[in-house]
Design goal:
The protein has 392 residues and is mostly beta strands. It contains two helices and 29 strands. The strands form seven sheets. Strands 2, 3, 4, 5 and 6 form a five-stranded antiparallel β-sheet that branches. Strands 1-29-28-27 form a four-stranded antiparallel β-sheet, with no helix packed on it. A four-stranded antiparallel β-sheet has the order 7-8-9-10, with no helix packed on it. A hairpin with a 4-residue loop joins strand 12 and strand 13.
Length: 392
């Protein structure tokens, strides 16, 4: 059974979620120039009750030159960066909330004239910003000062994908030639190259996010076989692989809590994998029929994914995976168990003599009542042990 979907019409090139307080999340969608309409960025509110985007944008920003290529949002949800086809990057600041959102734009000066930036990423602590160009140049900046940490023009032949580790210590990057590299995020020092066979091409990369399993997931094309491989980031050794999507993937994403991994295909399919068991939990076949999945991102708080493609626009899809326990449900369950235990103890104590049903002598006292065990609440006598004949 597939989840329900909604669409935002238009020639959409990219999109992602904007995490906001109180789970009032937004979606930002990049649209290409179409007819008389210019290319632009649109902000949509998300309705968790219907798992859909609102039909009309809350805010818009017109891109005067070029078209949006990639969007990455700062972990705070207050800023995002969009790269364009003319080689410029826009830094967009969000102000306000709800329907009163204002977008303030400025250029990312160090990337002006640097060429098309295919990959953008923020570290999870928000202190680092990285960009990878089609020319293979890797740049890592401090955020928000944009002081340069690394400027490596020969990092790759041409960038394919990148991702920061959960602790913001490492940056993984992949190349169009099938190679993958690991860098230190603090100083840009190269750590290692990911090992692969001569007939394998590493394509997409995402770090695990549950905080307990230090893994790096990569899609690997081995001949005509599409694999999802796993590296242990403590040793950078490959520990295994599995065939999941079974077709070339265009996008990969990991949920914010690390429980699920999503893969989007080049012909419009999406599968969602439970990381703990590495089994498929949800399939959306032909979601973007015949069109390459351009963006694939989990909602920060709901079991929902946002996908985009040029032909079918932006879609929000509710996943058919087991519902998560909410905090209030867990507390309610614990309270219920406590109350049930208390009631069971009271019933057993009052209605059953099994505990006291043992041979007693003629002069041995009978079963004490409950008041003798806990003492008389109205009494000022502090020697409650006197009921058992114990001298003090």
């Amino acid at each position: 059974m597939e989840g329900s979907s909604t669409r935002s019409e238009g020639s959409v090139t990219c999109g992602t979620w904007i995490r906001r307080p109180e789970n009032a999340h937004l979606a930002v969608v990049g649209k290409a120039r179409h007819g008389d309409q210019p290319s632009m960025l649109e902000i949509f509110s998300f309705d968790p009750k219907t798992s859909s985007l609102f039909p009309f944008p809350s805010a818009m920003y017109v891109i005067e030159e070029g078209e949006p290529v990639s969007i990455v949002v700062h972990p705070s949800g207050d800023d995002f960066v969009c790269s364009t086809t003319v080689g410029a990057c826009k830094w967009i600041e969000l102000r306000g909330h709800g329907d009163n959102i204002e977008l303030l734009a400025k250029d990312v000066v160090p990337l002006q004239g640097a060429g098309l930036q295919k990959c953008l990423a923020f570290s999870f602590d928000g202190s680092r910003f990285a960009s990878g160009g089609v020319d293979g140049n890797l740049r890592v900046f401090e955020w928000p000062s944009l002081n340069i940490i690394l400027d490596e023009p020969r990092a790759h032949k041409s960038f394919q994908d990148m991702d920061f580790s959960l602790d913001s210590e490492f940056l993984a990057t992949t190349s169009s030639d099938g190679s993958g590299r690991i860098w230190k995020a603090d100083d840009g020092v190269p750590v290692t190259s990911l090992m692969r066979n001569s007939d394998e091409k590493i394509e997409l990369c995402r770090f695990s996010k549950d905080g307990t399993k230090p893994f790096l997931f990569c899609t690997v094309q081995k001949g005509n076989k599409a694999l999802t491989a796993v590296w242990d980031i403590s040793t950078w050794e490959r520990i295994g692989h599995k065939r999941l999507l079974r077709k070339p993937a265009s996008k990969m994403s990991v949920s914010l809590d690390g429980k699920y991994l999503a893969l989007g295909s080049k012909d419009g399919d999406v599968c969602v994998v439970e990381v703990k068991k590495m089994v498929i939990s949800h399939w959306s076949k032909k979601l973007h029929l015949g069109s390459c999945i351009a963006s694939l991102e989990f909602c920060p708080s709901e079991r929902v994914v946002l996908t985009t493609s040029k032909e079918w626009g932006a879609m929000v899809t509710k996943l058919t995976v087991p519902a998560d326990w909410k905090d209030w449900q867990i507390y309610l369950l614990l309270l219920g168990l406590f109350l049930a235990s208390a009631v069971a103890f009271y019933v057993v104590f009052e209605k059953s003599d099994w505990f006291w049903n043992f041979p007693i002598g003629r002069d041995q006292p009978a079963r004490p009542n409950l008041e003798s065990l806990i003492g008389d609440p109205q009494s000022d006598d502090q020697n409650i042990w006197g009921a058992f004949g114990v001298g003090m």
